[in-house]
Task: inverse folding
């Protein structure tokens, strides 16, 4: 029986349907049969990958002399998964607060704000559960088959964790809104969610880079904890872990506590959340208009300065992009630790850090260049201006390099404190990598929605492949240059060839966006 329109479960089903459509959009224009076939294939592959991991875990647990690895494994999982869920809750609740969509229509309907927020929050919790469960449930299933059915307690424990994290995310979002106001909350919550999510990524890498003796000491401390210590299982911190262990009383308490946090947050914050959503809708229109002298000052400094300011204004127009660019940096940083550890005690800091700085520069520059192309709402207006196309494109490149320099300057300065020569070399290669990927995205523009910056390569996989090859060649080149010799010229030659074959035909720089041939074009002087 279908739920009545406007009811709680009807709203939940509506939000979940929108979530399915967003997920399908990530796979292109494939039909529902192809989409679900891909999902089934992904789940099957994850189960196959989890099979050898489960076999290794069962053997390691049987050979462990400190009481097994069950508690340490679930403790590590809780430390990494809970921040992931909280970050997702912050992101989803902020998006629900600022994204208009059908919210205006729902607010105008005779539905209680508490019902609206409760339904939307439950849909967000289910989405968070599925996004994490696609990775964790195969591991639990394989371990349940090979190591015991108690692993299936991960299912209700993870569901309770998703509810708890969603309730926490709602409270955090509304609190930030009350403290910082509608204009700053979106950026602050996205940056906070990014750093919380980075705990998950960096934590996974931390386990790999810790010395074997330290890992054994951690396992021993968890299996035989001292009373009152942080590893004492009788503390409330260990409630989610003991729930995932299958301890019935702890599982019941964790589920009850999570349900209480979720529904109390949703019901208590319903009217305040919806009022905040109404206030956030007027952020763009309530700002006071600039005075005439202020507007005049904005155009001082010449055409180039005005074009750069225009690009910076477009780049900072969407605060959601800040968190996505920060994620690119955070996800690349652990590679430095892995390279550093692989070199041993006498390893070179430059050899560990410089390739990552070069790769991050290439990635961020490519993203900013793509945004500069996609943000151009009036290419015909610029085409009619008394400036050349190449002049405008150079100003775009300058606008891209300004925020990139602010991001890359601190690590380069830190490297310069120990190895000044290598730091200068890293700066040169980072500039080259950033310039090559930025030019590639300007030469081969594929504009899209700004929110799709992390999925921009779906529009042109060839450009994405060329971009990754450029970043890889620059990273290999900096490594060879640090090691000495002239072999670094080989990857740089590949870079030159890639740019040569991707250069635009008949023009030094490409058009700002796809244009109809009948539209007026910029003067070529």
Result:
């Amino acid at each position: 029986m279908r739920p009545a329109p406007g009811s709680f479960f009807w709203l939940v089903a509506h939000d979940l349907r929108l979530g399915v459509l967003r997920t399908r959009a990530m796979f292109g224009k494939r039909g529902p049969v192809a989409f679900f076939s891909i999902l089934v294939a992904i789940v099957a592959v994850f189960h196959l990958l989890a099979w050898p991991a489960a076999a290794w875990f069962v053997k390691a647990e049987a050979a462990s002399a400190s009481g097994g690895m069950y508690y340490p494994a679930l403790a590590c999982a809780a430390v990494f998964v809970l921040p992931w869920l909280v970050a997702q809750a912050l992101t989803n609740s902020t998006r629900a607060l600022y994204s208009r969509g059908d919210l205006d229509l729902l607010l105008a309907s005779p539905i209680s704000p508490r019902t609206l927020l409760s339904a939307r929050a439950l849909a967000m919790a289910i989405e968070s559960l599925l996004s994490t469960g696609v990775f964790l449930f195969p591991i639990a299933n394989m371990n349940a088959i090979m190591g015991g059915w108690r692993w299936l307690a991960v299912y209700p424990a993870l569901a309770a964790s998703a509810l708890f994290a969603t309730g926490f995310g709602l409270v955090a979002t509304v609190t930030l809104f009350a403290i910082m106001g509608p204009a700053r909350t979106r950026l602050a919550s996205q940056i906070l969610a990014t750093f919380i999510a980075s705990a998950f990524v960096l934590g996974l890498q931390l386990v790999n880079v810790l010395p074997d003796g330290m890992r054994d000491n951690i396992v021993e401390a968890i299996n035989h904890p001292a009373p009152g210590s942080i590893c004492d299982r009788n503390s409330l911190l260990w409630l989610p872990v003991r729930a995932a262990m299958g301890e019935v009383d702890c599982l019941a308490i964790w589920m009850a506590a999570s349900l209480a946090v979720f529904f109390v947050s949703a019901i208590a914050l319903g009217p305040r959340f919806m009022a905040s959503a109404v206030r956030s809708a007027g952020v763009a229109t309530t700002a006071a208009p600039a005075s005439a002298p202020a507007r005049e000052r904005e155009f001082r400094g010449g055409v180039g300065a005005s074009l750069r300011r225009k690009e910076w204004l477009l780049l900072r127009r969407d605060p959601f992009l800040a968190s996505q660019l920060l994620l690119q940096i955070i996800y690349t940083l652990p590679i430095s630790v892995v390279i550093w550890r692989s070199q041993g005690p006498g390893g070179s800091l430059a050899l560990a850090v410089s390739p990552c700085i070069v790769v991050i520069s290439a990635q961020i520059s490519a993203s900013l260049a793509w945004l500069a192309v996609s943000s151009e709402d009036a290419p015909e207006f610029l085409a009619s201006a008394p400036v050349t196309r190449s002049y405008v494109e150079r100003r775009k490149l300058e606008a891209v390099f300004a925020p990139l320099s602010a991001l890359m300057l601190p690590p380069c300065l830190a490297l310069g404190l120990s190895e000044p020569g290598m730091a200068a070399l890293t700066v040169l290669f980072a500039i080259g990598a950033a310039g090559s990927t930025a030019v590639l995205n300007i030469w081969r523009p594929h504009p899209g929605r700004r929110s799709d910056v992390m999925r921009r390569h779906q529009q042109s996989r060839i450009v994405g492949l060329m971009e990754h090859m450029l970043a890889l060649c620059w990273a290999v080149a900096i490594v060879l240059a640090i090691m000495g010799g002239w072999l670094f010229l080989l990857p740089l030659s590949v870079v030159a060839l890639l740019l040569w074959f991707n250069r635009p035909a008949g023009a030094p720089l490409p058009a700002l966006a796809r244009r109809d041939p009948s539209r007026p074009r910029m003067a070529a002087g």
About this structure: Residues 304-501 form one domain. The CA atoms of residues 54 and 143 lie 5 Å apart.
